[in-house]
Amino acid sequence: MAVSIDLDFPSVIVGAITFWLLVKIMNRPKNFPPGPWGFPVFGCLPHFLFTRKRSRDVFKDWYYQYGPIYSLKMGSAYVVVLNSIESIHDALIRPEFQDRPRLDFLLVRKGEGIALGNGKVWQEQRKFVHQIFRDFGVGNASFEDAIVEEANFPTDALLQSDGKVINLEHHISNAVSNIISSVSFGQRFEYDDKKFQCILAKFEDIMQPSILRFGLSVFLPFTQYIPFSGSTKIRESLKTYMNFYDEITIEHQAKFDVENMKDIMDAYLLEIKKSNKNERLDVFNDDNMFWAIADLFFAGTETTTITLLWAFLFLLNNPDVEKKVKAQLNKVVGRNRMPRYSDRPKLPLVEAIISESLRLGTASALSVPHTAATDSELHGYTIPKGTLIIPNFHVIFTDENKWDEPAKFYPERFLDKDGNYVKRDDLIPFSTGVVDSVLGSSLQGWSSSSSSHTSCRKCPSRFLTGEGRPQLKESMESFTDQGSTKF
């Protein structure tokens, strides 16, 4: 007996379209890197939701399974993850991979900065900001003075804690933010200043979303408009910072003196005045200045704070290293002054500790994504236009094939047999060709030198032995990996 199935024409069309969409969603582009399977609509996002592993460990598992270049689908976006020095270097020095994805949910104001900008405007801004950071930053006497002044505060907080538990991250973040404020705005804030503390809290809201929450906003844009979502909180925090920034800008404009340039904002205001005359306001204008200086704060405060926090923790958990670096600092710098920039070549162990802290306690396991500006080729794979490119620092810094005992804090791996500092090409904590390569390395390296000296000279002995020593632990899902911040 024959069975008859009646299908009307619309049902056939809907079924065919559904099947075609599923095939399109599940299939990869031609000659695309291998990678894990994903769910319809959500891609690989559920892999991070239904696991107790840290996101960086999920990415590392895929590296072991698929190799140094693999791909995945995140929502509607294709992502290529780079897990080797060679692939990162080859990709990010090429113009077609230097663009950043547009994160429209962050745009509380017009303009482009240097961290997430693209094209000619980004290139000119980046060049200009790097130059003025060199003028007012690393090697500049006022910049050094700002670091020396602030370096004492975190360790003084430890000394004054009198056995009570304190949040060292909070004190380090205060110090780093004041350093950036000094070079950007020409002023510092008292640590009990309510407005300053409010801004620091907003920085944390912006920089501390989980990969899952941030990923939902980027890869599933409709979630941006869900009340109480992570993107909503980020936008509100950015608006608070914008109001704070506008007040400082008005003060600077009122006191602007071309014969007395004190900070980065002054230099940028001068460039805006020049652009007014040359009709070049597409590059240098008030909105772009807002984002450029915001990038200094957001990129500098959080990553430098986390690096310094890890350096503190590593030293406190490795008293043998602490003893050696204390001896070197006393020999070169003495006990009556803080180290200066000119001392760095004579402090190879300090340099090694900074490098090892950057490696083992890297502030960002995954770099901020780039995006392919055109259809491109990389290591034999085809990379379609619009694909996100993410360097995976965690794999590179913990690869057993590159590092002996990668889980061990061992600064001597950056020293030669004569005790001289050796720079390693496989340590790229600020990536290759990215905006913070100069800004980040300058601020973190020099402030780490001063903080290492201060902590070794002042650190209470109760932290160096026994139960008083803070333990190393890591957060589950933070963009920046932190040590135990409670002392």
Automatic annotation (TrEMBL):
Residue span of region Disordered: 465-487
Compartments in which it is found: Endoplasmic reticulum membrane; Microsome membrane
InterPro entries (UniProt xref): Cyt_P450, Cyt_P450_E_grp-I, Cyt_P450_E_grp-I_CYP2D-like, Cyt_P450_sf, Cytochrome_P450_fam2
Membrane topology: Peripheral membrane protein
Cofactor: heme
GO CC, one annotated term: endoplasmic reticulum membrane
Biased composition (Polar residues): 477-487
Primary localization class, coarse: endoplasmic reticulum
UniProt entry tagged with the keyword Heme: yes
The keyword Endoplasmic reticulum belongs to this UniProt entry's keyword annotation: yes
GO MF annotation list: heme binding; iron ion binding; oxidoreductase activity, acting on paired donors, with incorporation or reduction of molecular oxygen, reduced flavin or flavoprotein as one donor, and incorporation of one atom of oxygen; steroid hydroxylase activity
Sorted UniProt keywords: Endoplasmic reticulum, Heme, Iron, Membrane, Metal-binding, Microsome, Monooxygenase, Oxidoreductase
GO biological process assignments: organic acid metabolic process; xenobiotic metabolic process
PANTHER family to which the protein is assigned, alphabetical: CYTOCHROME P450 306A1, CYTOCHROME P450 508A4-RELATED
Similarity annotation: Belongs to the cytochrome P450 family.
Protein name: Cytochrome P450 2U1
